[in-house]
Amino acid sequence: MTIPKLSVTDLKAVIGTVEALRGISIAVAANEVLAIIGPSGAGKSTFLRCLNRMHETRPGATMSGKVKLDGVDIHARTIDPVWVRRRVGLVFQRPNPLPMLSIGENVVAGLTLAGEYIERRDELIETMLRRVALWNDVKDRLGKPGTSLSSGQQQRLCIARALALRPDVLLMDEPCSSLDPSATARIEELLNELRSHVTMLIVTHNLQQAARVADTTAFFHEGRLVEHDRANVIFTNPSDPRTEDYITGRFG
Q1: N or C, fewer C-beta in 10 Å, the chain?
Q2: How would residue 189 be classed by pLDDT, with cut points 50, 70 and 90?
Q3: How many domains does the chain have?
Q4: Phi, then psi, of 7 in degrees rounded to 5
């Protein structure tokens, strides 16, 4: 039997007194693109943060349950959170290039901060920027600040920075929410190109985007996983009336 790339069992998460997640169980196959949809406050972002151990960095945050990456419990006492975050990258909702670093330096920032020697640094920078379809736009100004780019370019730069760490899984929390339609289209093209290299989980409020890019879709509501199925099934023939109400705009 094939081991899922990610396996989540009875995941519960609390922030202060708020139950953000109430027993999520889900499996994600290697190279799968999973879209996570649901209204605000459903626990989608908290779920992503639990998958790369960022949740535990929040004051008053606790969690229980199991998260396994290739069969390894990422919350086991012997597992270093830094190792987890290298293998499970997270791209935030708003682009966050490091303001004091150049475009090129931003690409390798994760490796630099980890104190790693970067062999063939220039080649790595070019490879990552080509992978996110940014190289032709910036190859003549790699020394300019990362913040000098447009919002869409900054988001692709942040994805390049995450990919430079060679993660097995890439988490994206509404990566297109602050972008215009043209920049959004470029990001979606990128997601389709990346699917052969990495497993992706994408939180999005854009249902059309979820239908376009995802293999499977999970609908979250009030901290629970209501439904998880192939994307075409979720959007054409959901089994739970709450899912249908959400995707048809009756609430959310």
Answers
A1: N
A2: confident
A3: 1
A4: -130, 120
State the Cα–Cα distance between residues 102 and 229, nearest whole angstrom: 42
pLDDT at 148: 95
Residue 109, C-beta contacts closer than 8 angstroms, at least 6 positions apart: 98, 101, 161
- Separation between Cα atoms, residue 223 and residue 12, nearest integer Å: 9
Tell me, yes or no, whether 252 lies in a domain.
no
Considering the domain boundaries, does residue 114 fall inside one? Answer: yes
In sequence order, the β-bridge partners of residue 64 are 12
pLDDT tens-place string over residues 90-116: 998 888 899 999 999 999 998 887 777
The DSSP call for residue 145 is B
For the domain that residue 184 is a member of, what is the CATH number? Answer: 3.40.50.300
3-state SS, 59-96, equals: CCEEEEEEEEECCEECCCCCCCHHHHHHHEEEECCCCC
**Mean pLDDT (whole number) for 224-244:** 96
CB 207 within 8 A of CB 243: no
Those residues with Cβ within 8 angstroms of residue 164's Cβ, 6 or more apart along the chain or in another chain: 107, 108, 110, 111, 124, 128
pLDDT digits (tens, 9 = 90+) for 162-188: 999 999 999 999 888 877 888 888 888
- SS3 call for 200: strand
pTM for this prediction: 0.91
Residue 1 lies in a domain: no
